[in-house]
Amino acid sequence: MVFTFVNLAISFAIQGTYISPTMALVLYSNALHFFDPAAAKQLPPGDHFVNIMSGKLKRSCLVHIPKNYNPSNPSPIVLIFHGAGTNAAMTVKFTGMNKKSDEEGFIAVYPNGTGTGPFLTWNAGVLQGDMASGKPDDVAFIVQLLEDLSMQINLDKKRIYATGISNGAMMCYKLASEIGSKIAAIAPVAGTMGLDEVHLKKPLPVIHFHGTEDTFVPFNGPNSRTPKFMKFKSAEDTALVWAKANNCDLRCKEFDSNSLVDDGTKIKNKLYTNSSNGTEVHLVIIEGGGHTWPGMPAMVNFIGKSTKNISANDKIWEFFKKYQLH
After folding, report:
1. Residues 283 and 270 sit within 8 Å (Cβ to Cβ)
2. Distance (Å, rounded) from C-alpha 85 to C-alpha 125?
3. DSSP string, 226-275
């Protein structure tokens, strides 16, 4: 709308029309009103494609506002990061998180990384050498995105969560490491930590899902098939790093989850707990599971088996709703 007033003023000038000081003030005031972020249009329930500027780059995301959204009440938000070579739209289908959003009332936000066409990636601290140079600051993008969205939805800043798959899971770890004071909890799926270490200013709970037969981000860390320009930790080392960062008891509790179906997978758990503040780091191990979103069908065969013995969406929200910032 600001452009309408500016264009109107330009049109007057081209036509040689005199603009009085009063008219100029009206045009300027109206332009400021519509440019004011506080006057941004509120997003109603439904699905929205949102563009923002981050640095010099035009960035985007998909936003799902649940059916029962009430703009009078602050709503929690879940950031859902796509994997490498995919995008936000694919991740909506791959995760099925919109259904959970409608059931539980959180706002689901699917940011887009950068790349060519629909094949996008995140700068998650995994790349080394020349491959790491010139990459955008994706953490700064998310900070800007949250700020912009807070002007269009009634966002509960105490309940901002992050999940994602593969490269998107790695982005969760980088986000939590760099702006952990803004994030209440994370739930990486099939992607581990690419950073060397983490230093937290506050407790940050983690639930991590990983299949033992994942060939893209191997459970045990990089192997002979992993490109040399990539570095990341194993699933168990990642959980241990975050358990230490959260001052958890390193004598983890190990237990099996009951099998719901005989699909060739079993669910094992390693749970680290900080008894003084209730912070948990929970590693969910899917024996026989591939590079998939637990509980959702594998969209292609080559990513491996997706377990039906656990629903990541149910477990993620059950975990998230236990935590909020103070």
Report:
1. yes
2. 16
3. S-TTB----HHHHHHHHHHHTT-EEEEEEEEPPPSS-SS-EEEEEEEEET
Query: Which pLDDT score is estimated for 20?
Result: 52
Output the pLDDT for position 17. Answer: 43
User: Which residue is associated with the tokens 């581990």?
Assistant: 192
Tell how strand 57-65 and strand 107-111 pair up: antiparallel
Question: Is CATH 3.40.50.1820 the classification given to domain 44-320?
Answer: yes
Reduce the DSSP state of residue 5 to 3 states and report it. helix
Q: Residues of the chain whose pLDDT is less than 50?
A: 1-19, 22-39
- Residue 40: the pLDDT is 56
What distance in Å separates the CA atoms of residue 44 and residue 47, rounded to the nearest whole number?
9
pTM above 0.70, yes or no: yes
List beta partners, residue 270.
Answer: 254, 283
